[in-house]
Amino acid sequence: MNKQELLTNGRCKKKADRETVWPVVIMNFTGVYAHEVFARNNQFIWLDCRHLSGTRGYCDKEGIRKLKRVIAGYPAEGIHFIDSGNYHYLTKLWTDKLRVPFSLIVFDHHPDMQPPLFKGMLSCGSWVKDMLDWNMLCKKVVIVGASDKLIRTVPEEYGQRVSFYSEATLAHEKGWHNFSSAYIEGPVYLSIDKDVLNPASAVTDWDQGSFSLQELEELLAIVLRKERVVGIDICGECSATLTLFEERREATVDSRANKELLKLIQSFSCFLYSCWILLIILSHKPYFIIMMKTIVRKIGLVAHDAMKKDMIEWVLWNSERLIGHKFYCTGTTGTLIKKALEEKHPETEWDITILKSGPLGGDQQMGSRIVEGEIDYLFFFTDPMTLQPHDTDVKALTRLAGVENIVFCCNRSTADHIISSPLFLDPTYKRIHPDYTNYTQRFENKEIVSEAVERVKKRMSRNENNMIE
Hints:
alpha/beta; 8-stranded parallel sheet; 40% helix
């Protein structure tokens, strides 16, 4: 397919191609995505950021280091949902990963170019200015939909590198014509804050613009059709300080907007794919095109009675990250976990196989599934203070986890580290399967069978002789 066909069609014929090419990353800071239906897709990569303090609105150097570690295993070339507008500064961290010159197009009701209130802090109100000051690969910034009043506060010295299509400008046909006829040479990174939309189209925690969702989609379609887009961020979720009823109601509005925006972006994914490949060639960077292959982990969950509450809390805390995976649980633990997950996510279908209770053979059933390759993660919260009646079964299960080299832990702290590791959702990671050939074939070159047969024959022969005598 030539470039003109890509520009004209802008669509992939096969859905599978879209899913393989563009990683969709959910950065979950506030928990709001748990209420948004669009995010319930096991092909999405969930990055749990709820444990990161000091990141809301402002982010100091330590917070930046932590966030960089969170996104270290994922490419900038993809679609990133980065929660509310308080985290819009994450676009700077994602674009810091690019290794070729690029331009940034920002859809935002605010220019986000204020002088920082605190020195050394990255903020949602100054991150665009920081990019222009510190990222030498960022050649140009185009800000779309900002209010004229806020545009006037932008320092004049940035006039050569920043251009604006204000909310008022795009209210007229001439503004749309100028926007649609403009062309940016080189790769383009898109960053979208839904506060550019009117309150009927999205609900955010900042004052909002006047674009309808359809108008924003039309503007995005112009960019996606013309430019070499290499990455996209979307933020502007509703506030997490609302009541549960308000949060679910407003999250429904935002979920619809996110779903429509994602659908539009993915409809241009063939063209985006060609841009991504071009960027990889230019930067000589070995990013994995297979990043978005579906990955389903097979997880065993076991907990002693005194640790069941801890296990349930841990599963609920990480439930968004666990959506789409397959679970094997011993009897009582599995029943309680299933009930808790269905209460928190009533619309999600969980793949949970409940075995027998541990003391009644459940541990042995779990062990057999490990040996058969049906389980590659085992979270076993053990009670170190109580002697178990089926202690031999417990020891056998933990031994088999070591024999098969599966990911295994027996306390909550280690479980937290495992679930937050980039490797947990990295489809390229495969555990090493130990080679026990030497053990299984230890008698292959020995005459043990023939020797045993010969000994039996001799013994039978002696018995027969004794009977004759």
